[in-house]
Automatic annotation (TrEMBL):
Full protein name: Phosphoribosylformylglycinamidine synthase subunit PurS
Gene transcribed to yield this protein: purS
Subcellular compartments: Cytoplasm
Catalyses which reaction(s): N(2)-formyl-N(1)-(5-phospho-beta-D-ribosyl)glycinamide + L-glutamine + ATP + H2O = 2-formamido-N(1)-(5-O-phospho-beta-D-ribosyl)acetamidine + L-glutamate + ADP + phosphate + H(+)
Protein species of origin: Octadecabacter arcticus 238
Record-stated family: Belongs to the PurS family.
Organism taxonomic ancestry: Bacteria, Pseudomonadati, Pseudomonadota, Alphaproteobacteria, Rhodobacterales
Keyword field contains S-adenosyl-L-methionine: no
Transmembrane segments: none
MF (Gene Ontology): ATP binding; phosphoribosylformylglycinamidine synthase activity
Length: 76
């Protein structure tokens, strides 16, 4: 089984990388972008029997900074 974890900055946390991407898109002529939030995707190849709760524990202990980030788990 695989899991895909999407980690994003929480609302209200400044996203300088997202701002830089938005600026660069504007400089390339893509003026229709009102905002950009940048995150990361982590794909895990899991052993049989690994639960979504265990993946959540992985996120909270290592994969996401719970102070400023949130996460979503997709089991594949």
């Amino acid at each position: 089984m695989k899991a895909r974890v999407h980690v994003m900055l929480k609302e209200g946390v400044l996203d300088p990388q997202g701002a830089a991407v938005k600026h660069a898109l504007g400089a390339l002529g893509f003026e229709g972008v009102n905002g950009v939030r940048q995150g990361k995707v982590i794909e895990l190849d899991l052993a049989d029997g690994t639960t979504e709760a265990q993946v959540g524990e992985m996120c909270e202990k290592l994969l996401a900074n719970m102070v400023i980030e949130s996460y979503r788990i997709d089991l594949l």
